Amino acid sequence: MDTKLHFDINGIKDCQRNRHPLLFVDRIFDVIPGKTASGVKCFSYNEWFFPAHFDDEPNVPGFIQVESLVQTFIMSFLSKEELRGKKTNFLGINNVKFKRKIVPGETLTIHATLETFRRGIAIGSAVSFVGDEPACSADFVVAVPDVLDQFKPKVVA
Amino acid sequence: MSNFEKYQSIIKESFSYAGDVEELEYQAIAEWDSVGHMQLMAALEDAFSIELDVDDIIEFSSFKKGITILAKYNVVI
What we know:
- The complex is a heterodimer of chains A (157) and B (77).
- With 157 residues, chain A is α+β, with helices and mostly antiparallel strands.
- Chain A has a single domain (5-151), classed as Roll (Thiol Ester Dehydrase, Chain A).
- Helix content of chain A is 18%, strand content 38%.
- Chain A has helices spanning 9-15, 62-78, 145-148, and strands spanning 5-7, 27-32, 36-42, 89-98, 107-118, 121-130, 133-143.
- Chain A has a seven-stranded antiparallel β-sheet.
- Chain A is globular, with a radius of gyration of 16 Å.
- In chain A, 32% of the residues are buried.
- The model of chain B has no long low-confidence stretch (mean pLDDT 95).
- Chain B is mainly alpha-helical and 77 residues long.
- Chain B has helices at residues 3-15, 34-48, 54-59, 63-71.
- Chain B is built from four helices and no strands.
- Chain B starts with a helix and ends in a 6-residue tail after the last helix.
């Protein structure tokens, strides 16, 4: 049986390089390195984006929802000892779906699955919920450049 | 479909490339960059049911070089 790992905010910062104001996950739980990760993001009105999006109807911008999903997704592989602290880059985002508005005071719970991790390229997906209600989902292709670069062909000048 | 046709087809599909693949080399087209290279390696591994060694992935720098490398895995192009 796989042992599940849990990360508080300091543990998350040990694994991934995102930082305030672009680190969106508060807690990561039920991580099976190389397979799955779940995360939580609590949205209070203190978030920097609510006054701007929008002043009369504050709600979470779509790009922040997607970034929250991918920050949970990357924990499915950056939780592995040999990958901790490495930077990641987006290669692709597909099938993004938004099901519901997220407003101040709500908590987003995210579940991510890693399908494959080969030579620095991770492929997988994440879904999120507010309570039992689906909020957002997406498929991701993410690179770990430090790993990817080890497999680049030699170029003869 | 022969292995040669299969090999050509995988490269064309991996890079969405309709030109002459036989003269193709790493970085000769924008699509054959480091990311495209990993996608090509994964596609070849899946298609020929092989697992390429790191050294062979690094040496795989052209269509022609790939034929030599695949032969090491008993994939005769």
